[in-house]
Design a protein that fits this description.
This protein has 306 residues and is α/β, with parallel strands linked by helices. The chain has 12 helices and 12 strands. The strands form 2 sheets. A 7-stranded parallel sheet has the order 8-7-6-9-10-11-12, sandwiched between helices. A 5-stranded parallel sheet has the order 2-1-3-4-5, with helices on both faces.
Length: 306
């Protein structure tokens, strides 16, 4: 089988070497398409690929239609909104992600961003500590659990909301579950977002929730920019001059936010959550192993287009 790694932003060399070792060791052939700049390059590369590994690359219906041999595509990372799941399903292509492989990197970044905003973006002046503050975890999945664990190490009070996770499991981690989103935001000095971007969540975090936060509250978004209602975020920050917003996904109106609110807001130049050597390698190797297992045994454990 031909396994294509198509990444306009390449994996680290160590990750590529590891992927090659896994693929070659299973008797398959590895092909690389790195730093491509046009759709046509991707279209040509996928024509005879049996399997595809990508990062944030857009696998559209056009890509899927041109990949006549494609049986599986794996997004090396947790989010998979860059994959056209409908197109994959219609063509009988199994789509997967690699949950958990980037989680620690994202969790550490979330905590780091909280410290950065709490210390006035490292500008002169009196800041504040995380210790004793309440952090709300919006979605208690792989990343949310790790953020909670790290926050407890800072002696923070940790609460969480996730209707899809049994409260007993949250309590077992020493975290207090809350019953509504409104309560989560009302009690959180820091609110760490970890929801996916889907039809139910896009634009769901807006004025009503944000303005429920206590005085000096800080919203931390290491999830997806689409979950934020950006117009309502702007309104909330205008009316509540004590609130702060930090993210590793610049908003479409980020220039306006920066101009209006200065050090009350911060966005990294590009998405940074998974940008560690460890996460890069972990996700790439996981993707390769999942493809090998799929061809060997039909394993579809991490399928996302069921």
């Amino acid at each position: 089988m031909k396994v294509l790694v198509a990444t306009d932003k390449p994996f680290a060399k160590a990750a590529v070497d590891g992927i090659r070792s896994i693929v070659d060791g299973a008797g398959h052939t590895l092909a690389l398409l790195e730093k491509y700049t046009t759709d046509d390059e991707l279209y040509n590369a996928v024509k005879d690929a049996d399997a595809l590994i990508v990062r944030s690359d857009k696998i559209t219906s056009e890509v899927v239609c041109r990949a006549s041999n494609l049986k599986i595509v794996v997004r090396a990372g947790a989010g998979y909104d860059n994959l056209d799941l409908t197109a994959c399903s219609e063509k009988g292509v199994v789509a997967m992600n690699t949950p958990g492989q980037n989680s620690n990197a994202v969790a550490e970044l979330a905590i780091g961003m909280m410290i950065y905003l709490s210390r006035n973006c490292f500008n002169p002046g009196t800041g504040s500590e995380l210790k004793g503050k309440t952090i709300g975890i919006h979605a208690y999945g792989n990343v949310g659990k790790l953020v909670a664990k790290l926050a407890k190490g800072f002696d923070m009070n940790v609460i969480a909301f996730d209707p899809f996770v049994d409260s007993a499991k949250i309590i077992a981690d020493g975290v207090t579950p809350v019953s509504t989103l409104e309560e989560l935001y009302e009690k959180s000095n820091f609110l760490s977002l970890h929801i996916p971007a889907n039809a139910q969540t896009k634009g769901s975090v807006g004025y009503d929730l944000i303005t429920r936060m206590p005085k000096g509250g800080c919203l931390v978004n290491t999830a997806r920019k689409e979950v934020i209602n950006e117009a309502e975020l702007l309104k909330a920050l205008e009316e509540r001059t004590d609130l702060k917003y930090v993210t590793d996904i610049p908003a479409d109106n980020q220039a306006i936010l920066n101009e209006k609110f200065g050090s009350r807001v911060f966005a990294s130049p590009k998405k940074m959550g998974a940008e560690t050597a460890e996460a890069n390698i972990n996700a790439g190797l996981a993707a390769a192993n999942q493809i090998v297992q799929f061809f060997a045994t039909g394993d579809k454990t991490f399928q996302v287009n069921k």
